[in-house]
Amino acid sequence: MRLFAKARALLMLLLSFVWDLFASTGTVARIVLSPRIGVRPAILVMPTKLQKPWAVAMLAYFTSLTPGSTCLHVSEDRQTLHLHILDLHDADATIAKFRRLYERRIAELEA
After folding, report:
1. What GO CC terms are in its UniProt record (predicted)?
2. How high is the pLDDT of residue 38?
């Protein structure tokens, strides 16, 4: 049963990534093709509860692979990610999105 739960978590993680990839690509394309660029780039500090080095690395990779965001730095204790966001409207909502799409599923794989 545990293997099934991990396989399901991995599948959901990959589906979440693909969905976010398409949505983010559309957002970035709209920004690039807009006649007036009105973006609000920002550095966002995202705490994480992930414990294992590979889990934190996966979170950093998934945030970096998503168009419009990249992981700039992971703290020495692996408890904080510093993310560059191309167009930040709401820091809390952005963190919640990354937690919902990626961190939650990675935590299921980590358990």
Report:
1. plasma membrane
2. 82
